[in-house]
Every structure is written in C-alpha cells, then in structure tokens.
User: Fold these one by one.
Assistant:
Number 1:
Amino acid sequence: MKSKRSSTLWYAFLLAALALPFLPGGIGNTFHGHVLTMILLYASMAQSWNIISGYCGQISFGHAVFFGIGAYGAALAVVTFDSLPWYGVPAGAAAAAIVSVLISAPCFRLKGHYFAIATFATVEIFNRLFMIWDWVGGAIGLDYPILEDGWRNFSWSGTKNGYYLGALALFTLVFGIVRRIESHRMGYYLRAVREGQETAESLGVNSTFVKLSAMALSAALAALCGAFFAQYNYRVDPPMVMSLDMSMKFVLITILGGLGTFWGPLLGAAILIPLQEYTRAYLSHLGSGVDLMIFGLIIIVTMIKQPRGIMGIVHSLRKKPETPAASEEICEDREGER
Amino acid sequence: MGNFLQVLIDGLLNGLLYALVAAGLSLIWGVMDVINFAHGEFLMVAMYLSYWLGFLLDIDPFISWIAGGIFLFLLGAVTYRLIIKNSLGKAAMAPLLATFGLSMLLKNFCMNVFTPNFRLLSGNWLEGRTIAFGGAIVPLPQLVTALFAFAVLGVLYWMLKKTRLGWAIQATAMDKEAAELMGIDTERIYLLVFGMGGACVGIAGSLMTSYLAVYPEVGGLFSLIAFVVVALGGFGSIPGALLAALLIGLVESFSGFYIAAVVKYVAVFAVYLGVILLRPRGLFGW
C-alpha cells in the first residue's frame, strides 16, 4: 500500500503546506488563509470519519456528537474553568471515545438503514440534551472571553497564521495515523470486516473489538477537530456543533472525495469547502441559500455519475485500456451513458 | 383526569398525523429499500403549495389536498426518474445521499424564494373550531386530518393487499428478478411506488397547512420522526407504521406534559433506540 511514490507525494505535500505561510505574500490574515485553514480542518474531520465508515464500512451519521463533545471539552476548560484549552482537549477526546463505544456497542447489531437511523437519533438526543443542560451553557452556548494571543491559549486575533499551523498539525496527526493504520495489521482487519464480517470472523478476526476500537479512535480524532473548531470560532452552541447538518459534512466530504481512500477526504474538502466559502462570499447578492443549493446539486450529480467520488474518477482515468476486451468494455460504458 | 384525557387525545391526533407523513416513506422503504431523505422537503413543498393556493386563490386546505397529492405524485415520479433510478444499486447509501442533496436543494430554494419567515394560513373553514369531549377539547382541523390519515392508510393497505397492482408491488418488494420473470414491469412499479409515496406526503402536507405554519425548515423534524416511525414499525409494514406513529405521538405528548416540554423529543428518540435495540428490525419487522 505504502509505495515509495506515495510516500514522496505525502512528504512533499506536508512540506509545501508548511512552507506556505512563510513565503512572501503568504496567507497572513486573508480570506484565502481562512479557506485553507478550513480545508485542513474539514479534511481532518472527514478522514476521522473515514476510519470507521470508509475503511471499516460502518456508515455513521452520528459524528457530530463526538465533534461536539470535543468542542465542548475545549470551551468548558476555557470558559467555565477559566483555564487553558489544552486541558480540555484530551478530556474531550477521551469522553468522545467513551461515549462512542457506549453508543456503538448496542447499535452495531443493527443493519443497513436501521443503523443509519439509530445514529441520526443519537445526534438529536445529544443536541436536545445539551440545549437544556445549563452547565454547558444550554441553548445560549459558551462564549469565549478575550484571550491573550499565542499557542498557550491557542488563540490568535491578529494574524491567523497560528490557526493555519494548528490546523496543519491536526491534519498531519489525523492523516498520519490513518496512513500508519493502512499498512498496519489493523488496517487489514478493518477492510476484512468491511468486505465480509462473517468471513473475517471465521479467519479469527474479533470483529466486535475491531469495530469498537476503530469507532473509539475515529470519535477521539473527531473530538480533536471539534476542539479546534471551538477555538477558531470563539464560541460553541448545540446547533453549531451537534446538528445533523454537521454530521452530514463528515459524510459528504468523504463521499465526494472517495470513501475508504487515503486522499479522498482531502480532495473532497479541497473542492467543497472553497466552493462553499467563495459562493457564500461572492454570490450573496443572489439571496440566501444559493451556496447550499449548489452544494446540494453537486451531491446529486456525484451520486448519479460517480458514487465512488473523485478517487473513482482518478482511477478510471488511470486505467488505460490495455487489452482489447477492456477497451470494448469502456466503449460500451460510454454508449450506455449516451 | 381532564388533563390526562386531553394529553391522550393530543397524542393520538399527533400520532395519526405522523402516520400519514410516514406512510409514503414506509412504502418506498419497503418496496425499494431506499430512504428518501428529501421526504421532509416534499412535505414542505406540499405545505407551500397548499398555503399559496389558500392565500392567492382562496382554496381551503381540505380541498387543495387533491392538488397537493397530484403535484407530489409527479414530483416523486420525476425524482425517481432523474435521481433514484440512476443511483440505485451503485454504492451503499447512494440514493440516500442523493436525496439528501435534493433536500438541500429544495430547502434552500424555498429559503431563497419564500424567505425563512413563518406563514400561517388564516380564514380556513375549520379554523378555531373545536368540539368538547368529556372535559377535553378536540380541535377540528387536527381531528379531520387524523381521520384523513386513517382513510389514506386504509386505502393504501387495501390497495396493497387486494388489488392486482398491490400484488405486483408486493412481488417486486419480495424478489425483483422473479417478479420480472412473471411479467411485471418492475421499472413502472418503482415509478408508481415513488409517486404514491410522494402523493401520501403531499396529502399530509396540504392538510397540515390548515393548522400549522409553513417555513423552509418545517420538514426537518417531521422527516426525522417519519424515519423513526418507519424504522420502529418495521420494514414497509403499514400497520406497523400506524402503531409506531401512535406510540411516538403518545410518548411525545405524555413526556411533554408530565416531565417537561423540552425533553419530549429526547424521550421520543430514546424510546425509539430502546425498542430498536430489543427488536433490531422494528415492531412488525422480520
């Protein structure tokens, strides 16, 4: 899986991303800097979801819960305990992992759409519980006080380079872990469970353990992204972090890029996030909702034309017709499209 | 005691409304194993249609439900032809995600054109009319909607069990290939089923306009409740959906009154999770 070429690509990408803010006329405090930061954040979120849903095949619509717990972890540390976000981050990640295991252990018995709807229901339950739970700010949410700039508070009000580098660190961590898993024994277990749970079990894979540990890892990483989101937006409230719409972002970005592929989440985020941010900024004269209408249209077209996402397109381009039989097949496909 | 009766009646009336909203979803899920994520937005479209017919042409919702049913039948059929047919069987969840895209498109289109404001139709025939029933008050618009729910579910059930079309639909649901070998045009059945699912939600949406406000996000909660009702009732079972909807309506009204209004949906979804974990395929599933 980890060929020399893909390793070169990976390190080159990280180096280029790291060098970007230090170049003359780098990102500074521009809108493009904001978009780049968001791409890295949403790519990390999508990749964390990809672990359980892409590699392991358990499509979850409940990741907003774990994302939200992470966001509340950081915000509670800063706002309620008047302390540093760094104490809230591991607490949030651990809480998310525990909650994810408690929810998933019974829900993994459900199949197909029953599992999907059960995960929707958990998002609604958590959303409404956090709405009425005064300790976490209820429906008003938690607003950050004014903090000193710097890594200590993980907060910058002037130049946003700090957030960009923080997002890059998050991105490197999440993608690095997935890269490690892909070639590790665990990665093979995950894919074995996805391809056929009974077969995997008959070969001695403990599928329950594999699914639960993948879910816990996925939830903890989603919580880290949530903590970053809270720090970046300076506030959290339930509709912002624990909504079905947030859950769907995890799903849609990964699916658009390519479910169960390493680069898919990054590609999906690199297309959807700029689209969303720039249409919101430049098409606002057309009235509200235009950005989300375009978003919806792209999802429909992707699902109809290439449900395997951008990675699916890349693969079909790479596979040049070598044998006459293969080229005939492609011709037939094209005719079918007409 | 008066309170208890009132809460009971409210729960049953709401439950029957949920049953009507969920019936179309249940049919589509049962026959095609597809979740139409735009179901709530179909409901919203029907509500807007009924609202504008009432507002501009003075047509009462208890007449415009016919228009709502027909329009949503067509919308369902077009959705099937353009989206479902092309995404069915391609990848896991592809139709679900494609209809999620459709729901975003419809919701934000209405947001853009009709503004996010709440609109309540006034001057209906039954507006504000109630009948007293043993110390409880039964609002007439809700009662008539609930009776419609019974009628629509009854017709749907009769159609599935007693007519040739219904048998063809059941055969398609059981085994598509075998049904094709028996000479059933399954393509046409799918189209009809999606249209009928749309028509059910169209009738529900039109009638609801007689007592509920319409706004672009009205479908969100209703579609979630419809998902829960269908999953709780079990794969494509109409009696199951009815029973589940009544249960959900009662849980909602009793927890809202006896615990706190803010926890009623927590209770609804918690009851759903509790039941589904004991019976992973719903009350009437197999």
Number 2:
Amino acid sequence: MSTRVATARPSAPALADRSPESRGRQRDEVRLLVSATTGERDLSFRSLPDLLAPGDLLVVNESATLPASLPAVGPIGEFRLHLATEFGDGLWLTEPRWSPARPGPLPLADGTAIAAGGVPATVVARYPGIARLAFVRFEGDVPAAMSIYGEPIRYGYLRVPEPLERYQTVFARVPGSAEMPSAGRPFSTRILEAARRRGIGIASVVLHAGVSSLEPGDIVTGAPPLLPEPYAVPAATVEAIARTRRAGGRVIAVGTTVVRALESAHDGCSLRPSRGFSRRYVSPAQPPVVADGLISGLHAEGTTHLDLLDAFLGRAARERAYAHARAAGYLWHEFGDVHLSFRPARA
Amino acid sequence: MTAEDRRRAIVTGASQGLGELLAQFLGDEHYELLLTARRREPLERVAERLRRRGAAVEVLPGDVTDAAHRRAVAERLGPAGRLDLLVNNASELGPSPLRPLTELPLESFRRILEVNVVAPLALIQELAPALARGHGRVVNITSDAAIEGYAGWGGYGASKAALDLVSRTLAGELRTAGISVVSVDPGDLRTAMHQAAYPGQDISDRPLPEVTVPFWAWLLHRDPAAVTGRRYRAQSDRWEVAG
C-alpha cells in the first residue's frame, strides 16, 4: 500500500500564457525539471546535453503544426472549424466550435452543407461517442485555404495570439498536426549542436497530433479516449534504436507523441518499421516498452498524457514530481517548462 | 460531380446492423449504392431512410447463394459498368443458440459455407470485370472467430477463416488487375446477429455499429495498393499500411 501525504486537491499550476519569445527570451530558455529516484532537480533546459550521455539517442517528432483553425459558415451562421486529422481525399475529422473559447457540440446534422476557409464541404458523420467531433468532406484545396485563412488552434489561457511560427518546433518537416507536438519546442539549433558534439544521436518519427480537447465524458464505450492519428516509424529509426541499445545507450523520447508512435510500431516482441493510424493508449495497464527516458511538457490533471506519464515514471513518483513543479512555479502547457524523467530500471 | 463520375458501391446484407451502417456511411460519402439483402421490406426501409439523407440508392432483394440473384446484381451495373467497391457483408451464423461442432447439423454447416465463403467468391467472380474497370476495392467482412476457436462458433469461424484465406489469395491474384482485397473484422457489435448468438442475453455492453465509422473513413481513403491483402480489426488501436 502506498502512503499518500497530500490529501488536499493539488493547487492550480501556473500556466504559460505566452511563449518565451513573447517574454523576451529564447525558445530554449525554459526550465527543466529532472526527476530521479533521489528527488527532483531544477535546471535550465540548456543543460540538457550535459544530462545525457554520449551514445544516448533522442527520438523526435517531425510533424509540423498546421494553421488548422478555419472560419466557417453554415445554416447555423458563423462558427470556427478546427481540422484535427486528415483521413484522405478531402475527408477530415473536425471539431466545429462556436469560437476558439467556446466548444460545441454544434447543431450540424449529417449531410449539412457548410464552407470553411471558403471551401465548400459536407458534414459526413459524427464521431462515435463524441458529439463535438464530426467527419467533414471538402470539395476543394484545403491546404490552400488553411494557408490563406487558417490560424493555429489557440486555447483560452493565452494572453497573446502567438503566430504560427511559434507553434513550430525546430524539427518540423512534415505538416499535419492540429496541435503542436510541444515537447520539442524548447530545442534550438545551439542545443542540437551541443548534443551532437557530445555524441548524442537524433532519430525521428512522425505522429500528427489531432485535437487534444477531449473531456472525461468523451470516452467511447470499450475504447480508450484517444482519436486515431497518423504515425510513421521509419526503418532508419528502428535501426538507430537497436544500435543504441546494443551499445548500452538510452533512448529518450521527445514528447508523448513519440512514445505513442514507438509503442504503435512495437508488435509485442520487437520494434518494426510501421506506418498507419494509431490510437494506442499508453497507461499503467498498458505500459511503454521502447523508450527509456521522456522529455515532456507539464500536463493538466485528468488527461491521457498524465496516464502515459504515470505509466512511464510510476504514479507516486509522477505525483511527487508534479507537486514539486507546482510548488516551484513551473509553467504548464505548450509554451511552458519541460520535464525529463526516466523509466525505472527493468528487473 | 456528374452521375458518370460517381463512385459505385455494392453492399450485401445491407438491411440491418453493420451492412446498414456501411451503406449509410458510403451514401454520405456520395457513393451510388446498390444494396442487397434477402428480405425486401427492411431493405426498402433502409433505402428510403438513406434517400432522405440525400443518397442515391437502388435495392435488389435476393439471396447471395442464388446464382440468378448474383447475375442480376452484375447486370444492374450494365455491360461496361464500373464498380468501385464491393462489400461482402451478408453472413450466416448457423443455428441459434450456437451449438458445438459435434452437434452442428451438416446441412447448417454447408449453408454457413455457402453464404460466407462460396457466395462472396462467386460475387467477386461475377463482378471482377466491373471491379477491374473501376480499380475497385473488395471488403470481406470477417470475425475474430476465424482465429480464436471459440466454443460454439466453430462453423461460423471456419467459414470466416476460409474467407480470410480467399481474401489474401485473391489480393495477390488480382493485384495486376488493379483490384484490392481486404478482410475486416468489425469486432463485437450490438447487432441482430450477435444477439442470435446469445439469445435472451443482455448484449448492451457491445458498442453499436457506429463505433466502426472512423475505421471505414480511414480504410476507404487509403491507397488501395497499401492495404490490399491485409486483415484489419476495425476496433483495434492501430491500423497499419504497407511500406
């Protein structure tokens, strides 16, 4: 039985209400919380290369963020359409919202004709179990509409409307995420250069993150509360991970998206090159097996990200780290501080 | 989009359950539909409901084991007709309640194989020219009973295991003709067939067929060459493609 000292609800964490650049800093000038069995350490993200050893491998997500929030119009008047995931041939999983701050569901029946970013579209079907999400089919050039009318998906806690460039990581190469894979955001060219000089490798995956605004009531019967998202784990990354392991190095996933991509490519016995859509849910009941370490932002209570972190660190250690982070004033969310942790050594 | 450009799909067993859900999804995706099922009235009701949603629907009641019915399905497409999608969904469960294999009447087993293996292949043979003209897709509905050996499900499971191998083999044989073939296990669903397997039992913990919509949205928008020959589980947490 574990002893819980704190019985009160955790105090509210501090939220990053703008990017470091909007605070007059560089993107790598955020705080780094390091969890170890001996306790927490408060460091600067710029010390990351020194915390890793020569022969360690960073696995990063190359997905770039789309200007996925479009102005839309339909029989219900004007609204906002957030494009979460492209299924192909103009078919998108979307979240219609009254406004960036005001979620749905909106009364848009199947078959309703709408237009988003000037492109005519039809509501095809509700997402099963989640009435706020709908499949929408477009008859036109969606990427062009996004480049003209789209804005990054922004949530209510931001004080400054950060431009799209601020939603791109230094690794961004393949457009497709509705929301930034934010753990990679503090990386800068100088950090990458320092890591390279130290003999730390870099390998990549792609996982296009959809909308993360799921709520506890969104759980579909019998299925975990994750939406299918496109991922690709290339052969070069599988080989780099195998080489790292053989040489005794550690594999550090940069972000929960990377953990989910790697676990999706693991067939229960080994890691294989793999490509498709995944809603692999990583939790203490289905723990991760590929990465040894994780660099992640700080996540809100009650989200699937936290289940993943609990699976990674152990629930008690994660709660201790988060209590420390709250008390020490770490900043939460996509423009905030980051957290490095390691999976307890396997028996 | 003119009627000439419209994609055409055939769904068997479309009067209820998963077949009805698929017909609805395809209708909303602007496929022109030809729906079949044994009983006319429920099939007409589905067609009427989908037409009210704006779908172009024709029906042809009949039994897929009847060669004349299959011929009639092919003739509806016309001599140079093009077919984009064939969904072999119509299935025979066998006696309800289910019986162990030692007690499964052989005439029931033959009927199961006729409906679940012979008829889908016969329909593919009949429609292969139209499918080739459309670079079409074939989706054969299978079941985890094809793999697991569940007590009572032996007849049905054996038929679906045979259908899986038919699918895989056809995928290779039809690749050069530009036709793709996949097997899809939709997972347990709250349908009349699942209820027949468990008469009198509460199956309300099983999800409705709608739970498979994200999978159909995914599958039907993939490059056919990247999925052909594969077997998918619609409710699984990962759908992989080749390459």
